[in-house]
């Protein structure tokens, strides 16, 4: 099972970016999916999360500006980021709680992380 994130880049303050993260492999189901970020010199923090039934949660710092969504048919989670601020700069990581079939044929449920995509907001 792999998570592949994309969509990061350089944007001016006030601009927008849309991140995507697709899960691949012998996936049986995906429960919670989310986005975390890590700014230079800071700990990784949860930005937004979404459950399989579409319930969402957000960090206070991004409420009203970021929107998380998912396409269950494509095992993909999105993060629409609007009104970006300098302090949104960081590496954004997607993660997912995935139930998948192992090489031995049994079902395993575990958390997985993508490699991260850089978001840089210039002030």
- Give the tally of β-strands: 11
The number of helical elements comes to 0
Q: Give the distance, in angstroms, between the N- and C-terminal Cα atoms.
A: 37 Å
What oligomeric state do the depicted chains represent? single chain
Shape: elongated
Helix content: under 10%
Round the Cα radius of gyration to an integer and report it: 15 Å
Task: Give a short account of the largest sheet.
Answer: 7 strands, mixed
Sheet/helix structural class:
mainly beta
* Average predicted local confidence, pLDDT: 96
Order of helices and strands: EEEEEEEEEEE
Hey, roughly how much beta strand do the residues contain? over 45%
Low-confidence stretches: none
Please, could you describe this protein's structure?
- The chain has 123 residues and is mainly beta.
- The protein is 0% helix and 61% strand.
- The radius of gyration is 15 Å and the shape is elongated.
- The mean pLDDT is 96.
Short key terms for the protein model shown above:
single chain, 123 residues, mainly beta, seven-stranded mixed β-sheet, four-stranded antiparallel β-sheet, 0% helix, 61% strand
Structure at a glance:
The chain has 123 residues and is mostly beta strands. The protein has no helices and eleven strands. The strands form two sheets. Strands 2, 4, 5, 6, 9, 10 and 11 form a seven-stranded mixed β-sheet that branches. Strands 1-3-8-7 form a four-stranded antiparallel β-sheet, with no helix packed on it.
């Amino acid at each position: 099972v792999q998570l592949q994130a994309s969509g990061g880049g350089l944007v001016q303050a006030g601009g927008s970016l849309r991140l995507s993260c697709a899960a691949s492999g012998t996936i049986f189901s995906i429960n919670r999916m989310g986005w975390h970020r890590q700014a230079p010199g800071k700990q990784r923090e949860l930005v937004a999360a979404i459950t399989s039934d579409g319930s969402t949660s957000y960090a206070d710092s991004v409420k009203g500006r970021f929107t998380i969504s998912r396409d269950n048919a494509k095992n993909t989670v999105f993060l629409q980021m609007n009104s970006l601020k300098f302090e949104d700069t960081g590496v954004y990581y997607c993660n997912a709680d995935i139930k998948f079939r192992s090489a031995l044929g049994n079902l395993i449920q575990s958390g997985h992380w993508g490699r991260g995509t850089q978001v840089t907001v210039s002030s």
